[in-house]
Design brief:
By secondary structure, the chain is an alpha/beta fold. Helices cover 43% and strands 12% of the residues. The strands form 5 sheets. It has a 6-stranded parallel β-sheet, with helices on both faces. Helix 15 links the parallel strand 14 and strand 15.
């Protein structure tokens, strides 16, 4: 038997060209991505999905086990690096915990590898083919963030290793690299980055004469920081960390460390699935860690902190989640500059097991929307962080309009139902997964649209895609892998391209896949909401008990589809603008955002790092001479 693994559009086209049925050999077609699934369905080809070889329960168990495994893997690698490299010579830091600060990305790496490896190994062992065709991996070490596999066939790498270990002949689809849509996205991101750098330069020269040291520094932009600093001139947007480190070769010590890691028994055990070792997939990422992340962290961060030691604070749109973040937070605290993080959407009322890997025990401040965030996350900071509630301008504005015009949308002949199309986030077991490599997400959205299609005559059904999935020219889906799969549904729905804030008061019912920022925004309108409370991204019982009755929080995808059918069949969309307990606790704060922010800045400037235990530092940081 031959097995044809299809992932990218090019793989599918080549499969169609070779006509394997004419070879009189039994064959099996296996889809590795939503793009392949859609192509096979359009062309009437019977296939298996690689996702079917693990259940969501099995994936959840693996994901939970990897929480502990990633800490063990990081500890083992750090021990090996410390035994081969003089970190004080490199960074002026003794015992620099490189991998300990990479636990979250290591968890992503392990999930990416172990779950895909289990699927592939189980499939190959079940069918025992003589020959497999797989996507050609793109081997590189310095083109993607640490432990993320973007624009590459990770399945190709895994199946190559698994096939070789099982004695199966492996052939590649010629030059089957990333899809053209992905390359278009890269060019778009480059243009966006250039515009951002130009904007930062303009702000830099605007305030240079006023004295940068008196201006708060915004390290990472996002709607969070944009909202609280809107219209303020005395803000410095640093660009020092946008410049990538120069690619260099590994030194003798670094090569020795890399070789020791690849042969270490503990490391191999943690990267062995179904008796097959996938430790070689770690080699390029360790090289990336040693060459790019360390040098980018040390050189650029030290430059930034040294130049702005007098800055009153450095603001972040998220907390320290990787080596670069943790290094920067530690350097800032050691230099007396308070690091300040700003609440990012659901990162205040919903929980994820990934949060346990984030370093929330830094010394500094957390600006939260509501007082409830301290109750939910304060225990994880071990008292090393001070929470300051400032509210959210966007949530407060939506709530204000909703109270002034209750039930405005209910007078139409056809009620509006809005389905928020998921973007590039894999909601099952890890963050950072590419949308075109997640068949389960594809099936979830497709099944949601199938339910909505039944009611397309009765309701005005709107699809609101993630912003990156929209065409800039008109209200259509862009040429983006995930969007291409759903264009067949467009005769039944319409696509909405306006900003969410512009249209948030129009729908009579909101539907989306997990309780992220959209939950608060939709909740502020008083309209009913249906979403899913996933085990790996969920609201605890004490939090969900504050939700009003017109919010339907399903504990499974099947229950979500049942709720959709029940609500749409009944046609009743109760508005609730009276019960605001959830918003008051997790989304808003008394007083205006401007006043609250000014008071917070005064407090941070006056107190700085005073009162935070300096002995709390995780290692002895000393500036290199």
């Amino acid at each position: 038997m031959n097995i044809y693994f299809l992932e990218y559009e090019g793989d599918c086209q080549r499969y169609g060209a070779i006509s394997p049925d004419n070879n009189n050999e039994p064959s099996l077609v296996v889809s590795l991505s939503p793009m392949a699934m859609a192509w096979l369905e359009r062309n009437g080809v019977e296939y298996l999905s690689i996702d079917d070889f693990t259940t969501m329960e099995e994936e959840a168990r693996i994901g939970q086990a990897n929480l502990e495994n990633c800490s063990d893997l990081c500890a083992a690698i750090d021990e090996i690096i410390a035994s081969h490299m003089d970190t004080e010579k490199h960074f002026g830091v003794s015992g620099y915990p490189l991998m300990r600060f990479q636990r979250q990305r290591t968890k992503i790496f392990l999930d990416n590898i172990t779950i895909r490896a289990l699927r592939g190994s189980k499939l190959l062992k079940k069918y025992r083919p003589q020959l497999i065709y797989i996507p050609k991996p793109v081997y590189h070490s310095a083109e993607s963030p640490m432990f993320y596999h973007w624009m590459d066939s990770l399945y190709g790498r895994i199946l190559e290793l698994a096939g070789g270990a099982l004695g199966i002949e492996v052939r590649f689809w010629d030059a089957a690299k990333q899809a053209p849509e992905a390359r278009m996205n890269i060019r778009g991101r480059i243009r966006q980055k250039v515009r951002l750098i130009a904007l930062q330069l303009r702000y830099y020269f605007q305030i240079l004469s006023r004295g940068i040291k008196e201006s708060p520094i915004l390290f990472s932009m996002g709607y969070d920081l944009g909202e609280i600093f809107a219209g303020r001139k005395h803000v410095f947007y640093p660009m020092v960390l946008l410049a990538p480190a120069q690619k260099e070769s590994l030194g003798a010590d670094e090569r020795a460390a890399q070789s020791a890691i690849a042969s270490d028994v503990r490391v191999n055990d943690l990267l062995t699935v179904e008796g097959i070792s996938f430790v070689s997939l770690l080699a390029a990422k360790i090289e990336e860690l040693l060459i790019l992340d360390i040098k980018k962290s040390v050189n650029n961060i030290q430059s930034l902190v040294r130049r702005h030691r007098g800055a009153p604070a450095v603001f972040f749109a998220a907390g320290p989640q990787d080596l670069i973040d943790c290094t920067l937070f530690t350097c800032l605290a050691a230099s007396g500059i308070p690091p300040v993080i700003v609440q990012h959407g659901g990162y205040g009322y919903a929980r994820s097991s990934m949060l346990s890997l984030s370093d929330l025990s830094f010394r500094g401040y957390w600006l939260s929307w509501g007082d409830g965030v301290d109750e939910l996350f304060g225990a994880e900071t071990h008292g090393r962080m001070e929470f300051i509630s400032i509210g959210s301008r966007g949530i407060a504005e939506i709530q204000s309009v909703s109270r002034a015009q209750p039930g405005k949308a209910l007078s139409r002949e056809k009620k509006k139902v809005m389905f928020i199309l998921p973007g590039a986030t894999n909601y099952i077991y890890y963050w950072g997964g590419s949308p075109w490599t997640d068949g389960k997400l594809y099936r979830f959205v497709k099944q949601s649209l199938d339910v909505l299609k039944r009611y397309s005559d009765e309701y005005d059904i709107i699809i609101r895609p993630h912003g990156k999935m929209l065409s800039a020219r008109n209200d259509t889906l862009s040429y983006f892998p995930f969007c291409e799969l759903y264009k067949e549904y467009l005769p039944f729905f319409r696509v909405e391209s306006r900003s969410f804030k512009e249209i948030v008061h129009e729908p009579d019912l909101f539907l989306f896949n997990y309780p992220t920022t959209i939950l608060l925004q939709a909740l502020a309108t008083g309209r009913p909401i249906a979403t899913v409370n996933y085990p790996m991204y969920y609201m605890p019982a004490a939090v969900r008990s504050l939700l009003p009755d017109n919010v339907y929080l399903a504990d499974s995808e099947d229950r979500f589809f049942d709720i959709m059918n029940e609500v749409l069949r009944k046609g009743e969309f109760p508005v609730n603008t009276a019960d605001g307990r959830f918003l008051e606790k997790y989304g808003v704060h008394h007083g205006s955002l401007e006043e609250n922010m000014d008071n917070a800045m005064v407090k941070i400037k006056e107190r700085g790092m005073k009162g935070f235990d300096r002995e709390d530092s995780r290692f002895d940081f000393r500036w290199p001479q």
